[in-house]
Amino acid sequence: MGSPLAAARSPHVLCAPSPACTRATNTAVVHSSGGHTLLRGTPTFQQAPTSFASVALRYGRRCSSPQTPQLTGCASCTAALHSARPLLRAPGPRDSPPAAATTGVPLSARTTAPRVSGPPCRPGRWTGCPRRHPVPSRAPGARCPRTTTLVPAEMVRNYKRKTERGSATPQLMQEAADFVRNKNKSVRESTQLFGVHYSTLQRFIHKTSGNTAKNNTHVGYAKPRQVFTCEQEEELVSYLKTAAAIYFGLSPREVKELAFKCANEAKIEMPDNWRNDKYAGKDWFSGFMKRHGQELSIRQPEATSLSRATSFNKHNVELFFSKLSSLMDKYKFEPQDIWNADESGVTTVQKPRAVVAVKGTKQVGSLTSAERGQLVTFCVAVNAIGGSVPPMLIFPRKNYHDHFIRDGPEGSIGACHPSGWMTQDNFLLFMKHFIKHTKATVEKPILLLLDNHQSHVNYDVITLCKENGVVLLSFPPHCSHKLQPLDRSVYGPFKRYLSSAQNDWLRSNPGKRMTIYDIPSQVKKSFSESFNSH
User: Fold this and answer.
1) pLDDT, tens digit (0-9, with 9 covering 90-100), for 429-441
2) Phi and psi for 252 in degrees, rounded to 5?
């Protein structure tokens, strides 16, 4: 530390004794991403300082000045520090203040060895240490104790590769090597054909040929900081997929905890923060999801009752399709003769659609008629070629009047119930309406698929269907969310069109509240757009 350049290479920079310095307590100030650090001491100069960004502060204080990095000191020291600027960074929390900055004793009277804390660098990992001294440490921001050169602190989280080096797969390398060995082609020809690097292929051929062949020859760049191997991560991916399939998916926090437990049980080397927090870090989870982005993603699950989760199984589904196959073989139904009937609820309070608003706004509102709406049941039947019968609307009233559906779809019918739900009597009325429009007969029967709700499978309905050639087949209990065609593909678009129609109605009628008598007109518009053969 007998020259200014040697002082510049230390993480805590002080002016060293030189002909241009009259005092050994001069302080150097170094900017580094986010500010600069000032060491304790009062600068005293015989010459005027070349550049001052601020005055000396106590050790540990940080300056938030966004200006260009500045170095203060005497003229010769400043020039040396400017020449060594790429080697400098601000002291981090792992660093210790130098003795010269804490005791006030002249620097020339103390040791000349730079004080360096923290573990040394890893072999071949840090480019900051030209000698690549070996040590068992992977701490970010580490420095080599034999050379005072500083090393990079930490890799960026969203790093993007600039080249395609090391991206060749083992299968591609094996094909290129076989092309050279089996077809007596040159390495140069193989590299041009398969698009791999000449030296890479040459080394791979040498490793996999003759007595020097190795099992599981590595291809591409090594990943020394990856905690789990590729095989171990594949097992973890398989477990996560199985857990989600049986309705016990793991949240991101639970995945981190599982990763820590697996690494701990397998005695795998892991970062220190894993042991302190008892779960994996967010950087590992982010990298894990990126590596397996083709198979995994974070999804918001739907609430699924226990009865639905247990009823939808292989036995029930196979039983349903076996009965469907036997009916198809017996009656030879054509596509226009296969129908599905189901109900859905329509309320006077629509679900708001996405709107364009100011970015960063905490809350964006959308106007609705009320806090809670009234329910109107909508029942319809569709066939396999896209045809449909006019719908039925059930209003939450005791007595029904024809003007309720005055503005509804053409040919639609209506009924009432105090709750607005489907009942046995109302479904019997719908089946008469259904038989009228489908013209089903015993000579030309049709197939109707529906769920086994108690209002659908009562004695009166079954008798009416048997007399008019309607073959009923119900879905297994609690399986309609997976097997019902209307639930899977039709009601979703219908609800979106209906929400858009209700928004348009509120804009066209400012200050008015939507009632159940306004729903038929909105259903008419949505019905024509969603229930069609296109």
Assistant:
1) 999 999 999 999 9
2) -55, -40
Furthest C-alpha separation in the chain: 116
Backbone angles phi, psi at 209, to 5 degrees: -115, 140
Is there a contact between 349 and 373 (Cβ–Cβ < 8 Å)? yes
My answer on whether 422 and 521 are in the same domain is yes
Nearest Cα residue to 179 out of 167, 196, 163, 162: 196
pTM of the model: 0.54
Same domain, 339 and 273: no
In a domain, 339, yes or no: yes
Give 109-155 pLDDT, tens digit per residue.
333 334 444 444 444 443 444 444 444 444 444 444 444 444 444 55
The pair of structure tokens assigned to 321 is 């399709």
- From CA 86, how far away is CA 76, in angstroms rounded? 18
d(Cα 309, Cα 304) in Å, to the nearest integer? 7
Residues 20 and 105 in one domain: yes
Enclosing domain of residue 488: 326-357+365-530
Residue 176 lies in a domain: yes
C-alpha 100/C-alpha 108 separation (Å) is 9
Residues 193 and 254 in one domain: no
Instruction: Give the residue from 403, 395, 353, 351 showing the smallest Cα distance to 377.
Output: 395
Tally the domains of the chain. Answer: 4
DSSP 5-46: HHHHTSSS-BPPP-TT-S-TT-B--EE-SS-EE--SS----S
For residues 344 and 471, membership in a common domain is answered with yes
Strand partners, 346: 376
131 part of a folded domain: no
Parallel/antiparallel/unpaired status of strands 392-395 and 413-416: parallel
Tens-digit pLDDT profile for residues 185-239: 899 999 888 888 888 888 888 888 765 555 567 787 777 778 998 899 999 999 9
Q: Which of 465, 432, 460 is nearest to 446 (CA)?
A: 465
Decide which of 341 and 307 is more confident. 341
Alpha helix segments (H runs only) across 148-267: 170-182, 187-194, 198-207, 230-245, 252-265
Report the phi/psi class of residue 238: left, alpha or beta, with left for phi > 0 and alpha for psi in -120 to 50: alpha
Please name the amino acid found at residue 23.
Answer: R
Closest by Cα among 197, 194, 189, 188 to 164:
197
Alpha-carbon separation of residue 300 from 248, 250, 303, 433 (angstroms): 13, 11, 10, 40
Residue 299's pLDDT band (cuts 50, 70, 90) = very high
Let me know whether 489 and 343 are in one domain: yes
Domain presence at residue 146: no
Residue 520: Cβ within 10 Å count: 24
